[in-house]
C-alpha cells in the first residue's frame, strides 16, 4: 500500500489549505484513516481521524472547529480541509491507514501505513 499526501504549502495566518491523501495498491476498505503532524524535535501528534464508513470523526482539541476530515472511498482518497490556520499549525502532515481493529484512533501505533508527509507552513 502506498499513500501519497499532497496539498501543503505556505499560507498566511487565517488562511486555508486542503490536504489530500491518495491510496494505491489496495482500497481503504473497512479501515479508519487519519492525519498526524510532526515538528522538528517533537513526536508525531494526532490531528484527525475518520471511521471507515465516514460516520465518525475525531479531532484533537486544538483543531476542532477549524479542520474537517473527510474521505471518498470510491476514489480511495482522504482530505483535510484546514481553515483559520495559525502559525502553531506549522508542521509536516502525514496521512495514515489504520489497522483493521483499532484500539485507539489517536495513537500512531494503531496505523499500519503512512504517507510521505507534506509541509504546511503558516506565517504570522
How would you explain this protein's 3D organization?
The chain has 124 residues and is mostly beta strands. It is 0% helix and 50% strand. It is built from no helices and eleven strands. It has strands at 2-6, 9-12, 17-24, 33-38, 45-50, 57-59, 67-72, 77-82, 91-98, 111-114, 118-123.
Approximate strand percentage: over 45%
Order of helices and strands: EEEEEEEEEEE
Largest sheet: 7 strands, mixed
Q: How many beta-strand elements? A: 11
Helix-strand layout with pairing:
Layout: E1 2-6, E2 9-12, E3 17-24, E4 33-38, E5 45-50, E6 57-59, E7 67-72, E8 77-82, E9 91-98, E10 111-114, E11 118-123
Parallel strand pairs: 2-11
Antiparallel strand pairs: 1-3, 3-8, 4-5, 4-9, 5-6, 7-8, 9-10, 9-11
